[in-house]
């Protein structure tokens, strides 16, 4: 017996129905903001991801040589592919470009709660605007995406890579990216482990204390931003804090500010972020941390050979979101049973198929007996698949121009004229 590859899953019909429900709710919100759907190849040249995905992601690539000896990889995220697509074809297109995707990604990492080697993301990229209005639009959409699936108990925590850069300068740290990677892992480490990592990085006790103070600057914007003003005195720092104030004000105009927190200890894992970064956290007992995140990446398109172009976006982790929705009982029961089960009795296959086809063309979910079961076993099967009604198509009934409709819940049966079957089934389903 050949088993499935580690870190991947088989989705059964019930699971697919739940996933489709989630995808469609999110898709509706994306399109209300007038984002347009795209899909890039699942496989790209490895160089694309090596250029700017960060060391950790590069180590996790599913990378291999194709039969032509070319180095290719399965995509670990979509942002790099979107930037490549933009550079290839859309540099002269009207701005902003607003794209969304719902697609599968691949990373070779150890599977755990909410984490698989094949996973799905729903995300957006807004390309061409360096304005704070673009950040606000994307973060508002991020919030409303979670609200669309019924999730209300969550926060969107906003940080800023510019402020972290300024903080690294204040500490005298040259490897600011290295420091950010350690800060980004803080929630996965104990306090002792975090301090130990900072000391290995080269910080003295004073530097460690400053980092610990920084990562504690989190809470409501009205409380946190004044503290940030006290900490950051450079002109660049002051300018970024003004941008955060404006961002918070615009998010209030969008009506989503009650979900927003400021957390200056957020770095996000990708090296390409340049300013505002954010992530969503939903309290749970499942061991699941961030359920999505994003931020501004104003330099990435230039790295891929394009003209300097600002951009921002996010990705929602579907494999993390759905378990939380199930845990909170927010995904509705989805009925996969057929409305009608059509059973030919005797030599009536053509007529049974004709009736089922008429029902299907009218949008009614119909199944036809395909196994040659006798009537009693067919009715047993109808109960097992939870069919709402069964239409029994017998030769003698057809000679009188009728078929028998059976209500599978009550067991009641009645004869209906063949030409009136569709309308009769519609009336029954409306009850």
TrEMBL record:
Keywords: Aminoacyl-tRNA synthetase, ATP-binding, Cytoplasm, Ligase, Nucleotide-binding, Protein biosynthesis. CDD domains: HisRS-like_core (cd00773), HisRS_anticodon (cd00859). Coiled coil: none annotated. Residues 22-338 form the Aminoacyl-transfer RNA synthetases class-II family profile domain. GO terms for molecular function: histidine-tRNA ligase activity. It comes from the Archaea. It holds the Pfam family tRNA-synt_His. It catalyses: tRNA(His) + L-histidine + ATP = L-histidyl-tRNA(His) + AMP + diphosphate + H(+). It is found in: Cytoplasm. Its main location: cytoplasm. InterPro entries: aa-tRNA-synth_II, aa-tRNA-synth_II/BPL/LPL, Anticodon-bd, Anticodon-bd_dom_sf, His-tRNA-ligase, HisRS-like_core, HisRS/HisZ, HisRS_anticodon. Its EC number is 6.1.1.21. It is an enzyme of class 6 (ligase). Belongs to the class-II aminoacyl-tRNA synthetase family. This is Histidine--tRNA ligase.
